[in-house]
Each structure stands twice: as structure tokens, then as C-alpha cells.
Amino acid sequence: MHLNAIFRFFAEQGYIADNPVGSIKKPARARRAPKWLTRNEQNALLREVRNLAGKRENAIVLTFLRLGLRVHELCDLQITDLTLSDRKGTAYIRGKGDKDRELPINSELRAVLQNYLKERDSSSPYLFVSRRSEKCSERGIQHMIEKYRQRTQIPHLTCHALRHTFGHDLATAKPPVPLDRVAMLMGHYKEDGTPNIEMTMIYTTPGVEDLEAAVESISWT
């Protein structure tokens, strides 16, 4: 990289005829994986939320982890966007770039949302309300997650990390969820409306815990 810059300068100044290393391609940079929470970190976070807060914050954190929403999608979620029963649940999400999606709600999240709704005292159409407003703000949600980052000492805990956790857990499940389904659940679409599998492949990138498990698997002791 430094030699290329030096020779390019010499060539531009006329000291040499051309850049002798200009045609050499740079080695590809390793793809950086997004930050996500391990199972142990998820358990630590959920324990802290249950011990510290009420049903509202528990429902918010678990919605991030089990639906993989963006912050604005969570704030925009309305009660009428949900269909909840003992056996089935769906959430209609107004997605990025007007690409909406319908997400299944698993039994764990259904129970938490139903418990939250039983004690929710507000006439607001939005699912998650704050003390001062009928709708949670993105800044308010981010501030709440920052509070838990400090309490749990999980350095990479952010709203976006919770969304990435959903994608990573799907892609690395046993058996793994096919990437076209992960793309649809994450709201990754191409311009033509088909699932953007290339964008979703980032969630298959091994994390430190995955690499440690791989190395440990060949241990003889």
C-alpha cells in the first residue's frame, strides 16, 4: 500500500515512466462480522431485565431478540399489527424501503407479549409506550438498551446487536435455517423484491465463540 502510493507519486511527477506496482491487486480484507450476543450473553441480559424492570422492558428486549426488528420498526409497531393466540402469533412489520413483512411470533415471545398487554394501561395504538408519550422514541429505546449494556458489562450490546443476534441464531441453528428464509425474516430484499441472500450471508460468519468451539472439538483431552 505504501509502495504503491510512493511509486504513484513518482509517476505523476515524471520521475519514472509508470507505477511498477500499480497493477498489483490488494489482498481482500477479511469480512467483518456484525456484533451479536452469545447464548450466555442473552441469558445474562434477560436475567438482568427480569430482575430490574417490569413486563414492558422485558417485552421490548425479547421482541428485538425473537423478531430481529430495527429500532424504528419496533417503535412503529401497533397493537393492530399483532395477531396473538395460544397457538399462533404474527406481527406485520412496516419495513425499510416500503418492503413490509409478516413475521411469525414464537411461543416464548407470545407469552411475554400477552402478559405485557394484560397490564398495559394506555389507549395508544402503539404497542410500546413511554411515560411521556403514546409512542416510544428511537432515542428512548437506545437509552434503555445502553442502561443494560452498562449493567451487564456486555460491551457490544446495542439495539442493532440484538437484531443481528436474531439473524445469527437463525443462520447457525441446528439444522440451520435456509438463507432465503433468514433474508425474508430479516427484511433483506433486492430491488426486485426477491430475498437478498448475499446480504444475509454475513450472519454465517463465525464469531469468536464459534471458532473456539471448532478448535475445542479436535481436542484429545
Automatic annotation (TrEMBL):
Pfam families for this protein: Phage_integrase (PF00589)
Metal-binding found in the keyword field: no
The keyword Flavoprotein is annotated on this UniProt entry: no
Domain of life: Bacteria
Alphabetized GO MF terms: DNA binding
Keywords, ordered alphabetically: DNA recombination, DNA-binding
GO biological process: DNA integration; DNA recombination
All residue ranges annotated as the Tyr recombinase domain in the record: 32-216
Family classification: Belongs to the 'phage' integrase family.
Protein name listed in UniProt: Tyrosine-type recombinase/integrase
